[in-house]
Amino acid sequence: MLSEIWSDFRYRLRALVRRDRLELELDEEVRFHIEREAEKYERDGMTRVDALRRARLAFGGVDRAKEETRDARGVVLVETMLQDLRYALRGLRLKPGFTAAVVVTLGLGIGANAAMFGVVDRLLFRPPSFMADPATVHRVYLAWTERGEAIHTEHLQYTTYLDLSRWTSSFSAMAGFSNRELAVGDGDHAREIKVGAVSASFFDFFHARPALGRFFSEAEDALPAGSPVSVLSHAYWQTRYGGRLDVLGTRLQVGKTPTTIIGVAPPGFVGINDDGPPLVFIPITNYGTTISKDYYRNYGWDWMHMLVRRKPGVSTAAASVDLSSAFLRSWNTRKGMERSLPPADVARPHAVAAAVPLARGPEASRDAKVVTWISAVALVVMLIACANVANLLLARALRRRREIAMRLALGISRGRLVRQLLTESCVLAVLGGAAGLAVAQWGGGALRALLITNEDAVSVASDGRTIAFAVVATLAAAVLTGLVPALHTGRGDLATTLKAGGRDGAHHRSTARTALLVFQGSLSVVLLVGAGLFVRSMQNVRALRLGYDVEPILYVAAHGRSVKPAPAEMAALKERMLDEARSSPGVVRATRTQMVPFWSGERRLLFVPGIDSVRRLGHFDLAAGSPDYFATMGTRILRGRGFTRDDGASAPRVAVVSEAMAGIIWPGRDAIGQCMRINADTMPCTTIVGIAENIRSRSITDAPESHYYLPIAQYDQHVGSSFPWLFVRVDGRAADYAESTRQRLQRLMPGDAYVTVDPMRTIVDPTQRAWRTGATMFVAFGGLALALAAIGLYSVIAYDVAQRTRELGVRIALGAQARDVTRLIVGQGIGLAALGVVIGGTLALAAGRWVAPLLFAVSPRDPVVFGGVVAVLLGVAAVASVIPALRATRVDPTEALRSD
Fold it and tell me: pLDDT of 628-651, one tens digit each?
C-alpha cells in the first residue's frame, strides 16, 4: 500500500518537474500506437499515406487523447497555477515602474502593521518569556474607595503579601517581586541598573534552568533578612564578566549589600519586565531589610507586586473572591494599627486576579490605550495602501480591456482570467510582504523604543509570531487588492470592446476607481484629524505650567550604600554638597529637597484648629527645601514670603502652603498666619508664612495637588540623618551640565557612596509620553496616508485625462482655453477630495467620543484641526490634479481627432 502511494507521488512529482520529458514520451507513445495501427492497414493493401490517415481516424482525436492523459496525471491544477505564475511574473517584469510602486506601497502598509503587531503583542498578549502555563498565572491588583474615588493599584506592602499568602487557599504558588534601580558594582564600575528583588518561589513560575550555578533557595529568602546572594542575568554575565565560568562565588555589591554570586539565568530570561529587564536578581527579603527593619510587620510602604498561580479547577472569578476575602481581613488588621485608615464598610477593599501584563490590568494605562489606537491607525494605513494598489491594478486592467476581450473571444473562461489576475495580485502581495518585513525589521526597533521604552530589542526576523502576522497580512492584501480588478474583468459587450479598441476607455470611466479614491481620502481625513488633535494635545501639555521650571533643573541624589556617617558628619556633608553645587560652572542656584515631582512624595498627619479631620479634606503632600528652594525651582510665591536663613532648626516653625491647599483648609480666609500641627495634635504650631502657586507632582491631567513646604532645617528634625537630594538650576540646558556637576560632587562622597544626576526633563517626559507618542505616530501615519491618497488621486486623474484625449481635443478645437481645461480637470480632483472630506469628517466626528479621554485640553471636534485638515487635503488634491491638467492643455486637437 505504502509502495503504491510512494510510486504515485513520484509519478506526479515527475509530471511537474520533468514535464517536457513526459510530453516527449507521450508524443512517442501516441506515434507508436498510430504506427502499429497503420501497419495493419498496410498489410491489407493500403498505401502508406492512406494507412496513416485511416489509423489516425481509428485512434481518434490526438489532442483529446493527450489532454485525457494529462488529466490522468492529477497535476493539471498545479500546472495551470504555475502557468499563471509565470504569466504574472513576465507581465510584471515588463512593467518595472508599476511593480515597484505597488511593492513599495504594500511594503509600507504591511511593514507598519507588522511592526505595530510586534509592539502590541508584547504589550498586551504575549506572556513573559519562559512562563510556565501562563493561562493560570495572574498578577494581583488591589482596589478600594477613598473619599468617593475608586483607587486601583498593582503595588502592595510585603505585610499585605504575607496576609494574602496566609489567608487564601485557591493558589498552588505565590511569589513577590519588585524591580528597583540600584547601584551595582564597586568604585568606577558602580552603575545604577535594574535589579529584580524576587522571592525564591518566583523562579518556579518559569520553565527556566540556570545557565550556570543555581537560583536562590527558600532558606536564602527566609524572613527577616534573607541571605546576601545574587543571580546574574545572562546578558549582564556576558557584558560585565565576559561569560567567565569562575564568576560563581565572587563578590558583587548590590545596593548597600555585598552579595555572593550563586548563579546565572538562562539567555532571554528577564522575569517580569515591567519597566526594563532586570540584570541582577536578589532575594526580596534581603532587599526589604535594607529599606526598613520592620518592612514585614507594618503597612507603610507599597513597593512590590504579587504573582499567583491558580490551582486546577479554580476559576479566575473564584480566585478573585478568595483574594478579596483575604484582603478584607488584611485591611481590618491594618485598621487596628492605623487609626486614620477608613473602615472597611466605607473603603470596600477588594482584590482581583488579572493579567500579568500591566497594560491588560483592570486599569489600562494611557500609554496602553494610545498604543491600541495607533494599532487601529496602522490598520487604516493598510486599508489605504490596499485601496491604492487595487486602484492601480484596476487601471491596469482597464488599459488591457481589449486584450482581455480578445482572450475571452478566443475561448478562455472568465474564471481562468480571474485566477490570473488574482495570481498577479498574490505575487505583488508576496513581494510587498517581503518588503514589509524589511520595513518592520528596520523600523521596529525605533517603534519599540518610542512605544515601549523598557522593551529589550527583538529582531523581527527571529520572531515567529510577527512573521506569521505578516504572512496573514500579506494574504489579506492579496485578496483586498485583487478582488476589485478581478470582479471587473470581462464586463461589458465583447464585440463593442473589440471594435472600439483603445477608444473604449473614453466611455468607460471606472466608478470603482472613483469609489476607491474617495475611500482613501475619507480614511486620510480620519488620520489627519487624529494627528491634529494629538499635536494640539502635545502643544497644550508642553505649554502647561507645572508650577516649576523643567529645562534648567538638575536633580542630584546622593546614595550612601554602606556608608553611615555620624549626624554631625552628615550635616557637614550636606552643606559641602550644597556649596559645591552652587560654585559649579553654569550653576545659578541650588537647594536641598526631599520631594521629587513624579518620582517621590511624602504625606503626614495634619491637625488644624477647628477641623475634626484634615485627611477627609484630601491629600496634602509635603516638600522641604533650603532658603533658595522657590527661586531654584521657579515656583512663584503669590503672597507672603518663602523661606529665609532665619528659618533654622531652633527658629519658630513656619510653612508655605500652595494656593489649592489654602483654599481647601481655610476657605474664605487668609491662610497666612494660620496654625497647623504636623504628625500629632500635641506638636508645636507651624505658622503659615506664604502662599505658593500650585504645582503638579503626581499627575499631568488631574487638577494641581495640594502641597505644603517646610524649611529643610526644620524638616531634618523629623527624619534624622539621611543622604541629601538637591535641585540645581543652571544657565542653559540641564543635560549639558549633568556630567560635570556629577564629577564635582562625586569627589565629596565618602567610601562607596555615589552621586546620580538627572535632568528634570527626563523625569517629566515619561508623564507626557502618551501625547508625544500619539502625536508622533498619528502624524507619521497620517502623512503616509495623505501621500498615498495624493498618489491615488494623481493616478485616477492622469488615467482619466489619457482616456479623454479625444474629448479634450474636441473642446480645444472648439475654442476652449487652457485655463478652462485646467479648471475642468482640477475641479474634478477637488470635487473627489471634497467628497472624501465630507465622509471622513463625519467618521472623525463619530470617533471623537472614543478618543476624547486621550486628549489634553482640546475638543475632539476642534474647529481649528478640522479646518486645517480640510485645507491640507484640498490643497494636496489641487496639486495632485495640476500635473494631469497641464498635460491636458497640451493636447494637439489634430492628433487627438486623427486618433479616432
Answer: 999 999 999 999 999 999 999 889
> Which pLDDT belongs to residue 643?
94
pTM: 0.75
Ramachandran angles phi, psi of 672, nearest 5°: -65, 130
Question: CA-to-CA distance for 781 and 527, rounded, in angstroms?
Answer: 7
Is 443 among the domain residues? yes
The answer to whether residue 586 scores a pLDDT higher than 50 is yes
Place of cell 475641479: 827
Instruction: State the pairing for strand pair 706-711/553-559.
Output: unpaired
Question: Max alpha carbon distance in the chain (Å)?
Answer: 142
Of residues 451, 363, 463, 369, the one with CA closest to residue 129: 463
d(CA 660, CA 695): 9
Q: Is 39 a residue whose pLDDT tops 60?
A: yes
Q: Is the pLDDT of residue 9 over 50?
A: no
pLDDT at 16 over 50: no
User: DSSP assignment, residue 615?
Assistant: G
By C-alpha distance, which of 644, 622, 628 is closest to 578?
628
Cell of 577: 554638597
The neighbour count for residue 822, using CB atoms within 10 Å, is 17
Same domain for 392 and 346, yes or no, is: no
Same domain (yes/no): 351, 372: no
Q: Is 756 exposed, middle or buried, given 0-12, 13-18 or 19+ CB atoms closer than 10 A?
A: middle
What DSSP state is assigned to residue 856? S
Structural domain includes residue 465: yes
Using CA atoms, how far apart are residues 630 and 602, in angstroms rounded to an integer?
18
Q: What DSSP letter does each residue of 172-227 carry, written as one string? A: EEEEEEEEEEEEESSGGG-EEEEEEEE-GGGGGGB----SEE-PPPTGGG-TTT--
58 or 547, which is more confident = 547
pLDDT digits (tens, 9 = 90+) for 750-790: 888 888 899 999 999 888 888 888 888 888 888 888 888 88
Which three three-digit cell numbers place residue 658?
500652595
Instruction: Give the Cα separation of 78 and 871 in Å (integer).
Output: 52
Q: Find out whether 782 and 524 touch, Cβ atoms under 8 Å.
A: yes
pLDDT tens digits, one per residue of 675-686: 999 988 889 999
- β-bridge mates for residue 198, sequence order: 177, 283
CA dihedral 515→518→523→527, nearest 10 degrees, is 160
Residue with cell 464585440: 495
Q: Where are the beta strands (DSSP E) in 54-170?
A: 137-146, 149-153
**Treating both helix axes as pointing N-terminal to C-terminal, what angle do 414-451 and 401-409 enclose, rounded to 10 degrees?**
140
DSSP per-residue string spanning 232-293: E-HHHHHHHHTT-GGGTT-EEEETTEEEEEEEEPPTT--SS-SSS--SEEEEHHHHHHHH-T
Query: Are 296 and 166 within 8 A, CB to CB?
Result: no
The residue ranking higher by pLDDT, 4 or 857, is 857
Angle in degrees, 0-180, between the axes of helices 96-120 and 366-399, rounded to the nearest 10: 160
Which residue segment(s) compose the domain that 278 sits in? 134-356
Residue 307, SS3? strand
pLDDT at 440 over 90: no
- Report the relative pairing of strands 171-184 and 212-213 from DSSP bridges: unpaired
Specify whether the CB–CB gap between 778 and 530 falls below 8 A. Answer: yes
Q: What crossing angle do the helices spanning 62-73 and 48-59 adopt, rounded to 10°? A: 40
Specify whether 860 is located in the same domain as 734: no
CA dist 632 → 248, 550, 574, 716, 819 (Å): 48, 11, 17, 20, 65
Q: Are the C-beta atoms of 344 and 331 separated by less than 8 Å?
A: yes
In a domain, 6, yes or no: yes
Cα separations in angstroms, 45 against 32, 57, 645: 20, 17, 137
Check if the beta carbon of residue 558 is closer than 8 Å to that of residue 725. yes
- CA–CA distance, 349 with 324 (Å, rounded to integer): 7
Amino acid at 594: Q
| Cβ-Cβ contacts under 8 Å for 823 (sequence gap 6 or more) | none
Claim to verify: residue 721 and residue 799 sit in the same structural domain: no
Tell me, yes or no, whether 426 and 444 share the same domain: yes
